[in-house]
């Protein structure tokens, strides 16, 4: 096959799109600007580098929409799920990975594939011809973003993402903290002890909130008026919404018993999750922040158990651009004004590692179908992948379009099932059963693997 698929961006979506296309026999060129052109958040030039977190969230494919998305990607031979499973870390019911080993594994597989070529350097203009997928993610370069704005005639929409800090585990005081997953969730002892918990009494919590509110913070530059994505709010922003917000969010004490003082219920709990296979690094769960570096160390050392903490990485904040996809993209994820260009990943208005990878998987398969002249039926909207792509390419209201995680609210209802909390377990199981059957049927009708 002489045609070549060009992919701009080697993140989650670009890596998965490249893998799917190469499996089908297409020649692929990945254009990745790192490490020649760096970003605020990335540290390496590896593919699929995890920036904000090391978690793919819930792995429950019967009761959780993102867990279902995991299942669909595994069924489709997804490279990222294969690498996530290979480099998995204990995380209760979640799928967390050793982020460096995961990225290195993805990079090795892609670089060794005989049909995949890597061309380093920045692409700053929209391609005029050929077959392209733009999967540049939340940190699309300024020049390419300008080219997209010029082509679409609209201002790029944007919001802000924040990054949580990482602590060296040897500096956590385990005479104060203890290991336990919430509600002891997990089938093995390692899973049931996957998190480190730091307890606070009421006075400690109130002092911590006061310090958060008073801390020196990074301010937006002039003209940066975008809001935050609600799933990645800085803890200071949550605290500004009410003093109890954190205690009912990432610091909720429910499902946890202090191993050092089991008769005293903590008023609040800060959790840390393992960040690498060695167990030498832990990230503070839900503690995205825009505090300046000096303030972060001072405030976070107020947490019992972290009074002597040393940080492998402090938190930060970065701008995240995305398209108004319902207006600009067709149902094949192509730019309407330039159909030789597809978009995939977070730039399309999905949010999260898994969602981004899933849109890369689909974009890669759509490109293969178009380039080989094999029509591809629409992915059913009853599946997690189909629900996402339907949402971003027409299901959402263009005027109010915002980044979206996968959730069961995007799925067509199952007839005959009652709504409300009491019927939720049966309803979610019906969603996932239907999705699995429809996804398998779609994959069977769209087998794209090379002979």
UniProtKB/TrEMBL annotation:
Residues 5-374 form the MnmG N-terminal domain. It catalyses: uridine(54) in tRNA + (6R)-5,10-methylene-5,6,7,8-tetrahydrofolate + NADH + H(+) = 5-methyluridine(54) in tRNA + (6S)-5,6,7,8-tetrahydrofolate + NAD(+); uridine(54) in tRNA + (6R)-5,10-methylene-5,6,7,8-tetrahydrofolate + NADPH + H(+) = 5-methyluridine(54) in tRNA + (6S)-5,6,7,8-tetrahydrofolate + NADP(+). One of its GO terms (molecular function) is flavin adenine dinucleotide binding. The keyword tRNA processing applies. It is found in: Cytoplasm. FAD binds at residues 9-14. GO terms for cellular component: cytosol. One of its GO terms (biological process) is tRNA methylation. Its EC number is 2.1.1.74. Its cofactor is FAD. HAMAP family: TrmFO (MF_01037). Belongs to the MnmG family. TrmFO subfamily. Catalyzes the folate-dependent formation of 5-methyl-uridine at position 54 (M-5-U54) in all tRNAs. This is Methylenetetrahydrofolate--tRNA-(uracil-5-)-methyltransferase TrmFO. It comes from Histidinibacterium aquaticum.
């Amino acid at each position: 096959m002489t045609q070549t698929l060009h992919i701009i961006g080697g993140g989650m979506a670009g890596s998965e799109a490249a893998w799917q296309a190469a499996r089908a026999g297409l020649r692929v060129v990945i254009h990745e600007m790192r490490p020649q052109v760096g970003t605020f958040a990335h540290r390496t030039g590896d593919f699929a580098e995890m920036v904000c977190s090391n978690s793919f969230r819930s792995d429950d494919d019967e009761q959780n929409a993102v867990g279902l998305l995991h299942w669909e990607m595994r069924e489709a031979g997804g490279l990222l799920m294969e690498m996530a499973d290979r480099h998995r870390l204990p995380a209760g019911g979640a799928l967390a990975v050793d982020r460096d080993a995961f990225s290195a594994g993805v990079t090795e597989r892609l670089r060794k594939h005989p049909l995949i070529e890597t061309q380093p350097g920045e692409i700053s203009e929209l391609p005029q011809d050929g077959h392209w997928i733009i999967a540049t993610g939340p940190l699309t370069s300024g020049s390419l973003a300008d080219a997209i704005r010029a082509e679409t005639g609209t201002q790029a929409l944007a919001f802000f993402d924040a990054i949580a800090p990482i602590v060296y585990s040897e500096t956590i005081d385990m005479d104060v903290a203890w290991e336990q997953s919430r509600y002891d969730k997990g089938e093995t002892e390692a899973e049931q002890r996957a998190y480190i918990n730091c307890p606070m009494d009421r006075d400690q919590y109130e002092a911590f909130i006061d310090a958060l509110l008073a801390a020196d913070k990074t301010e937006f530059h002039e003209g940066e008026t975008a809001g935050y994505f609600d799933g990645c709010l800085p803890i200071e922003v949550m605290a500004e919404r009410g003093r109890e917000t954190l205690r009912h969010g990432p610091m909720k004490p429910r499902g946890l018993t202090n191993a050092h003082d089991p008769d005293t219920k903590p008023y609040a709990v800060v959790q840390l999750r393992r960040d690498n296979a060695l167990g030498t690094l832990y990230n503070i769960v839900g503690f995205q922040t825009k505090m300046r570096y000096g303030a972060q160390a001072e405030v976070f050392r107020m947490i019992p158990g972290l009074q002597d903490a040393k940080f492998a990485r402090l938190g930060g904040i970065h701008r995240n651009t995305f398209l108004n996809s319902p207006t600009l993209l067709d149902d094949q994820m192509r730019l309407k004004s330039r159909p030789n260009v597809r978009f995939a990943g977070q730039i399309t208005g999905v949010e999260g590692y898994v969602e981004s990878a899933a849109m890369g998987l689909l974009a890669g398969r759509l490109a293969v179908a178009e380039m080989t002249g094999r029509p591809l039926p629409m992915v059913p909207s009853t599946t997690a992948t189909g629900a996402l792509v339907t949402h971003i390419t027409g299901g959402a209201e263009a005027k109010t379009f915002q980044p979206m995680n996968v959730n069961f609210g995007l799925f067509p209802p199952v007839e005959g099932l009652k709504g409300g909390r009491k019927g939720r377990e049966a309803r979610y199981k019906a969603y996932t059963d239907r999705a699995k059957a429809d996804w398998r049927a779609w994959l069977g009708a769209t087998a794209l693997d090379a002979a």
